[in-house]
TrEMBL record:
One of its GO terms (molecular function) is protein homodimerization activity. This is Glycerol-3-phosphate dehydrogenase [NAD(+)]. Residues 136-317 form the Glycerol-3-phosphate dehydrogenase NAD-dependent N-terminal domain. Keywords: NAD, Oxidoreductase. The keyword Oxidoreductase applies. It catalyses: sn-glycerol 3-phosphate + NAD(+) = dihydroxyacetone phosphate + NADH + H(+). Residues 373-520 form the Glycerol-3-phosphate dehydrogenase NAD-dependent C-terminal domain. Its EC number is 1.1.1.8. It comes from the Eukaryota. Residues 321-343 are annotated as: Disordered. It comes from Neurospora crassa (strain ATCC 24698 / 74-OR23-1A / CBS 708.71 / DSM 1257 / FGSC 987). GO terms for cellular component: cytosol; nucleus. One of its GO terms (biological process) is glycerol-3-phosphate catabolic process. Pfam families: NAD_Gly3P_dh_C, NAD_Gly3P_dh_N.
Amino acid sequence: MNCSRLGQPLLHQARYRSRILSSDAASVFHYLVQGQGPKLPLSFSSPPTHSALRRRFYVQSSAAISKPTSPFHQQLPRSPQIATRADVLEPASSLWSTRSSRASLAPPLNNTRHLPVRRYSQVAKMTVNNFIKKHKVTVIGSGNWGTTVAKLVAENCAEHPDTFEKDVQMWVYEENVTLPKDSKHFDASIGEQPQKLTHILNTYHENVKYLPGIPLPHNLVANPSLVDAVKDSSILIFNLPHEFIGNICRQIKDHIAPYARGISCIKGVSVTDDKIELICNYVSDALNIYCGALSGANIASEIANEQWCETTIAYNTPLVDRRDENGRPVGNGESNDHTKQLTPLPLDYPPLDHDEWSLLFSRPYFTVSMVSDIVGVSLAGALKNIVAIACGYVEGHGWNMTAKTAVMRRGMQEIIRFANEFFPGQIEPRTFWEESAGWGDMIVSCTSARNWRCSKLAVERNLPIEEVEKTELNGQKLQGISTTREVSSFLRAKGAEERYPVFMAVERIIDQEIKVEEIPKLFK
Ligand SMILES: NC(=O)c1ccc[n+]([C@@H]2O[C@H](COP(=O)([O-])OP(=O)(O)OC[C@H]3O[C@@H](n4cnc5c(N)ncnc54)[C@H](O)[C@@H]3O)[C@@H](O)[C@H]2O)c1
Ligand SMILES: O=P(O)(O)OC[C@H](O)CO
């Protein structure tokens, strides 16, 4: 029977029956009766085995709709959650309508994507396991992007209490901040005395220094203690300028849950001598956890104002964390990343796969695309900052879109060349063409982001870009300056300078060795 023909009467029936079933069963019912399901038989000729029951849970749910007192109904695996009024009345908030439409099945090892939506296992994993624990989330970093990501993640944690703990920790690099008289939070009894940024965040729910004017969710908790902020968290989101990540990892190494999983929102690379490492891999190695990467055409202030944009998350679910459609582990202790042995995510936690990452980061104003190309996503995000500086210089010099387009095109060529040369066989070219992390980020970064803006001002004011960073950004950091220096030094160590004229030219302009008008002749 095709569920699309079940129609309104059955929808009412499902709503009524869902009161006596678990919330997950309710989700299944609503999914089925809203006509998105496959063809389903409504009865069985003989009772199936228990495992078949679990595998075919949604079929049985359909059977349960038609015969709620049948033996199949008695055998349905139950979720620990009892249906609430909200489950009954608001099926649209169920996992079917929000999660499954966006997320895809965890990819196999060789970077494939756009795989079918994982509906079966989503049900099984929600019902076979009890998920006594919920994921505790910590955001490490509270700058312009750090606070914006913390805001959207906290909104999702409040909306999905079945998967995440409501309160989200945000580690704040503590500093004293003075509220100006015209601030709406100005308190005459305190006057212009400096106050701790964490105090301001937890009192007024606004990051007055790095994200002024944006109300933050009250379940976002600012914490000045790094060790305390990461305690017992199963999800760590790294979001601070890349130059600080080494120090952060050293401080938290012995204090994180061994099964924690990370996402790095940092755009940068780690370079030592002639070695280059992606930030997410640096984190993975330093902490012995698995860490993916989030990157895209994302201007923090726009997203904080809930203006729509897209992003890309690269996550290659470790074998030790993969679960089959019945929610059982499929890995055997191996790891698909690097060579280390990872501590598996305990089974009493909801899985951490593409679906859950998508659930954690997707907002109506923030569309997430899940992929597994860690290298492509990370390098695109880090290296475009060099090209953005080049574009700002070109524009500051008085050249316009045509010159900038030439720089962007050549810059993208160099990014892809760099990825192929130093991370051979590890990128998917379509990341650069199809994903927000690729050309999308290149365009926004070269037309409206901070690296572009400061380098443009540097030429216009005839000042070093570092000076402009200090005077214009109120403590925010440009990643492009240090990335240019690190990448140039790496290229010199490899004797590869000639193949990367854009990257090398930017370093020479930052150091005031050459002028912008000399750029074209470097390309010959
Ligand atoms: N801002 C954006 O629009 C945006 C968008 C996408 C990605 N990113 C990336 O996100 C990452 C974080 O950038 P951001 O915009 O949140 O930061 P930011 O530049 O706004 O702020 C700098 C942060 O560094 C902190 N800090 C200063 N000294 C420190 C120290 N010694 N140790 C630790 N922290 C210290 C400050 O407290 C502040 O939180 C960067 O890699 C950036 O490229 C930024
Ligand atoms: O403001 P920037 O230059 O750090 O860039 C911000 C984002 O990376 C743009 O996607």
